[in-house]
Amino acid sequence: MTINQTKKLFQHKHFAHCESGVMSLMMNHHGLPLSEAMVFGLSGALMFAYIPFVKFGGMPLITFRSRPKSIIKGLRKNLGVKMQMHTFSKPRKGMEMLDILLEQGKIVGAQSSVFWLPYFPPEMRFHFNAHNLIVFGKEDDEYLISDPVFETSQRCIAKDLEKARFVKGMMAPKGLLYYPVYVPQHIDYPSIIPKVIRKNAKAMLKTPVPIAGIRGIRSLAKTIGKLDKKNPEWAKLFVGHIVRMQEEIGTGGAGFRFIYASFLQEAGTILENKNLSNISNMMTAVGDEWREFALLAITAIRRKKTKQVCFNDIQKKLYGVADAEAAVYKELLSIKLP
Amino acid sequence: MKCINVPQDNIITYANNKKVMYATDGAGHYSIITSSGWEIEEQATMQAVQELDRLANDAFVQVQNGEKSPLYFHMYNCRMDLQILSESTGLFKWRIRRHFEPSVFNKLSLSITARYEDALGITAHELCHLPEPHNSNDN
Could you give the C-alpha distances from A145 to A29, A32, A60, A96, in angstroms and in order? Predict the structure, then answer.
């Protein structure tokens, strides 16, 4: 295929999350129909972690999914997809390689910074270096970009894309480019799905350290309870930060819980397993609780300055969320899957 | 969440963009819905943006008063903090902190200022001056 054929054939699609969106689109492009929810679920990307000693823009690291690139790695491991990855020490080499791959008619995944991509609106531009997108063509000095979190495809001039791909710092992309070299055309779902679901549920329930999984959620709740002893302005920013990590960064709502519920539903249909569909409903209810938590938290901190923020209510709500979510994983581990 | 409950609040932080949400239809089946944003998310994002703007504005005043070098302002204006600037320039935090001193900053070698220009995406002239008139949304 030539670069021009690829440009015509390639269809941009809008997704909730960057990495799962890129992988879903790439798998579809290479003949394996796989929804974003399936990509997310099959790579076992659902997580929670609260790591107070790792600071990210002055705030402790809070994440609702496993670490960046784990979706790509999860698909390699669980589905047997083979990916070619390149990183570069010199930006010039990284841009040349991109041109060569496009010339071969490939669609190319790339890691980049969010801040330096000019097509992001100013309010969304933060220093986050593990964003993913697909480059599918080039016209003169402009690259054609399929950014999964945007409704339509975007354009970006070479100089800006280079800057975004070679930004230094935490999770520096180092110009990472990736594309599949082998995509299986048939997946043995009855053996893979139960395995990934159990593994993910165990990871959420049985963590040795109180920073990840359900224990991570509880430890975050504990921290919220102690916020009234902190600087009130910082405490408000901290609460806002949790909600941002849950909603703003492209999670499909409720910190990926709705995407995972959608995966459980799809898995239930594939395996013709009624239990999975029921647990999907439970997970949806957990997602709704996360949304209620966000509503409660933001409403509490936006009150007038004179009134004290009641952190105990927020804490109580989060403990409730943790219990409800733990019940989902326990259920997933108890049911019989083929 | 049900499809009919997906917020469509047209929030300003999306700047007319839409995001994908996962929600269930009447029969309980998941589908993909585009959303123009949730007011709660807008408030969380705006809180963070306003904090960044406040830091940049405070820095602007301090530089104007000659207490800090222009680098201090540009760091915040680029939505960075000491940690991010240190990571993206490869300079130690204590060195950057020294460079916030106007007297030290004025004597910096070209190779050091070049690293700042590169990390902040600005020219040598911009690095040594405050922008005029000041606009906090200007990156």
Answer: 15, 21, 32, 17
Alpha-carbon distance B84 to nearest alpha carbon in chain A (angstroms): 7
- Which domains occur in chain B, in start order? 3-37 (no CATH), 44-127 (1.10.260)
Q: pLDDT tens digits for chain A (338 residues)?
A: 788 888 888 899 999 999 999 999 999 999 999 999 999 999 999 999 999 998 887 899 999 999 999 999 999 999 999 999 999 999 999 999 999 999 999 999 999 999 999 999 988 899 989 999 999 999 999 999 999 999 999 999 999 999 999 999 888 999 999 999 999 999 999 999 999 999 999 999 998 888 999 999 999 999 999 998 888 889 999 999 999 999 988 888 899 999 999 999 999 999 999 999 999 999 999 999 999 999 999 998 887 666 677 889 999 999 999 999 999 999 999 988 87
Q: What ipTM did this prediction achieve?
A: 0.91
* Cβ <8 Å between B48 and A244: yes
Q: Are residues A107 and A195 in the same domain?
A: no
Any residues with CB less than 8 A from the CB of A213 and at least 6 apart, and which? Answer: A47, A48, A49, A203, A204, A205, A206, A207
Quote the tokens at residue A82. Answer: 């083979």
What is the model's pTM? 0.92
Number of A/B CB contacts below 8 angstroms equals 127
Alpha-carbon distance A305 to nearest alpha carbon in chain B (angstroms): 15
CATH of residue A155: 3.90.70
| Distance between CA atoms of residues A105 and A197, nearest Å | 36
Based on the fold, state whether residues A134 and A243 are members of the same structural domain: no
One domain, residues A178 and A268 = no
Any residues with CB less than 8 A from the CB of B124 and at least 6 apart, and which? B113, B114, B117
- Is B61 touching A (CB cutoff 8 A)? no
